[in-house]
Specification:
- This protein is of the alpha+beta class and 292 residues long.
- Strands 2, 3, 4, 5, 6, 7, 8, 9, 10, 11 and 12 form an 11-stranded mixed β-sheet that branches. A two-stranded parallel sheet has the order 1-13. Strands 14-15 form a two-stranded antiparallel sheet.
Length: 292
């Protein structure tokens, strides 16, 4: 199995983030217009595969903030408004600053909450798009999260909050448009404390611009938190090796009572979740047990 996981994902994000962030949206739009993606049997674009963002947007959508001895600043992933800043309402901006100050303790991701949308797309860990005629689902590495993208003809499940929201999708030519509602307020947008309320509404646009690239755009609207809607953009890259598989991310409760991510390469974690070995050991114990 191709080991594309946390360490590899973070390293690749750091190395390739700057290259992506310098790309022109005009160039990407021209590329998308000229690219005719492969199709499924029903004629819809074939987005199947393992994809990954390679930018540093997961750290801070507005561009990385100085933290400790790290002084790196990258281009904002926000393309509207033009200043690259989230248009917070005054009180919400105060809350964001408080979140940033206490981020190590209060970031929901550090407590193993599912990432939410669009944060799950921006993480340096890969995710997989599973598709067949009339069906589409997205499976993420972190916290066993997944989304089933129902057709837009199916009404939203209003009044129920989900960590990953309630997704409805349709095709606009070669672009997959996903309307996401019913997002709770217990997730953040990045590691810098950028946040939203349970009124968040996200519209995502996935456009394949080449055999292994997708232009990803998300428009966020939340009248309780933002003065106006705003938009982020990044590029997603497909893993070309057909043998690649996403790996399982586990969270375990530590001695401090908090939950912690456990690396899939941690030997203790692998033993803990090696159910085949556990079943074999149980069968062996039963065979060696005294007969009544």
């Amino acid at each position: 199995m191709n080991k594309i996981g946390f360490a590899a994902g973070v390293a690749r994000a750091a190395l390739l983030g700057a290259a992506y962030l310098g790309a022109s949206l005009v160039t990407q739009a021209q590329s998308a217009a000229s690219w005719d993606p492969p199709k499924l049997s029903d004629g819809t674009p074939d987005f199947r595969g393992i994809w990954q963002a390679r930018s540093l947007a997961y750290l801070d959508l507005e561009g990385r903030r100085p933290a400790g001895n790290v002084k790196t600043v990258t281009k904002s992933a926000i393309v509207d408004p033009p200043d690259g800043k989230i248009p917070y309402l005054p009180q919400a901006l105060k809350q964001r600053d408080a979140n940033f100050k206490n981020r190590a303790a209060v970031d929901p991701a550090n407590n193993c909450y599912q990432a939410g949308i669009p944060r799950a797309v921006l993480l340096p860990t890969p995710f997989q798009i599973v598709e067949s005629p009339g069906n589409l689902a997205i499976v993420y590495t972190d916290n066993h999260a997944y989304r089933i993208v129902e057709p837009s003809t199916v009404p939203h499940d209003d009044g129920i909050d989900f960590f990953m929201g309630d997704s409805r999708g349709h095709w606009e030519g070669a672009t997959l448009v996903v309307d996401v509602t019913d997002l709770g307020d217990q997730t953040w947008l990045d590691q810098a404390g950028n946040f939203h309320s349970d009124q968040l509404h996200v519209v995502e646009r996935y456009t394949m611009t080449g055999p292994n690239t997708i232009s990803y755009e998300a428009r966020l609207e939340d009248p309780q938190t933002y003065a106006k809607p705003w938009t982020i953009h990044t590029v997603l890259y497909r893993e070309p090796d057909p043998h690649t598989r996403i790996i399982e991310d586990e969270c375990l409760e530590g001695s401090d009572g908090r939950w912690h991510h456990v690396s899939p390469f941690d030997a203790k974690a692998l033993r803990r979740h090696d159910y085949k070995a556990e079943l074999a050991a149980e069968a062996k114990a039963q065979m060696s047990a005294p007969k009544p």
